[in-house]
Amino acid sequence: MTDRIREFLHDEAAGGLAILAATVVALLWANVGPGYDGFWHTELGPLDLHHWVNDALMALFFLVVGLEIKREFVDGRLQSPRAAALPAIAAVGGVLAPIVIFVVLIAGGEGAEGWAIACATDIAFAVGLIAVLGDRVSEGTRVFLLAVAIVDHIIAIAIIAIFYAEAVSVLWLLAAAVLAVAVKRLPRLWIPLGIALWIAVHEAGVHATIAGVTVGLLLPVALGERVEHRLHPWSAFLVVPLFALANAGVDFGGGVLGDALGSRLTWAIVAGLVIGKLLGISGATLGALRAGGTLPEGMPRPQLAGVAAAAGIGFTVSLFIAELAYDDPALVERAKVGIFAGSVISGILGVLLLSVASRARRV
């Protein structure tokens, strides 16, 4: 494992603790403290605080994701088609199975627009979970999880751009295309051009965070590595925890929890994250191995199920998609309860399966 991958994994693992802390604060604030919703809906210029976090700050998170995707495919573990094939197949399986489970359970009922909620993996929480287990999880397993999560993010970004865009303005979209070309040709001016691209994408009706991914993919690798080195700690320790603080607060009073537990939407998300990720990633990977694929060096096959379960921690991107999918606050709250429950169950299941695999390996 290279030093740069170790640094990325370390920041993500530590960032997972920051997200957890922010989530706890958000839940306490929403249930015990005053004015949670009122604070985040405070108008500040053209947007309220909630949208400044979700639309603007999260663009930095997706910028870092774009930079990491670019680096891994150009100069990393995914640069060769053979190396990229297995985690790509695993990620596709881990996206399709949750979607199928969700669609079947919802059966066209209320909340069907959120079909993509359960298909995302939270890198920070999943990597943080693996880090807690220390050397009981091999380096090859960590790299496999990271590669699967990166491809998972590529698919999630495409879903957000294609299926959760508003009415698209062709003129603003053309302006965004021109600015993207400018970023490619004049990478040293990526900051002002990136801001202009964010505005154009926002006005085009496509979610503005796509601008962050676009800039990350367009920057040259050498410059991108320096930018990622500087921005990744800010993304891991400020941006994503702020996102959790602004979005994870669910007031469980007033029958909200009971309503969520009685909702088909909540359980469709739980099933998608817990069962869909486990079966989708494990099944797709085992099928690829039978067809001649190979696991990363040093990754024991018994650890596959634990990694697949851990990938069901869908927190950050799942919350993000839920906010895009629903206008009805009641549906958003039911989705959040499902995301919380599914992510916690997936995390516990991942630890149990990886611990069992570790003990079996040492016997």
UniProtKB/TrEMBL annotation:
A Pfam family per the record: Na_H_antiport_1
Kindly state which keywords UniProt assigns to this record, in alphabetical order: Antiport, Cell membrane, Ion transport, Membrane, Sodium, Sodium transport, Transmembrane, Transmembrane helix, Transport
Q: Does the keyword DNA-binding apply?
A: no
Keyword Transport carried by entry: yes
- What membrane topology was assigned to this protein in its record? Multi-pass membrane protein
- Which terms in the GO cellular component ontology are assigned? plasma membrane
Concerning its family, UniProt says: Belongs to the NhaA Na(+)/H(+) (TC 2.A.33) antiporter family.
Q: What does this protein do, in the record's words?
A: Na(+)/H(+) antiporter that extrudes sodium in exchange for external protons.
Q: What is this protein called?
A: Na(+)/H(+) antiporter NhaA
Supply the source organism for this entry.
Answer: Solirubrobacter pauli
Higher taxonomy = Bacteria, Bacillati, Actinomycetota, Thermoleophilia, Solirubrobacterales
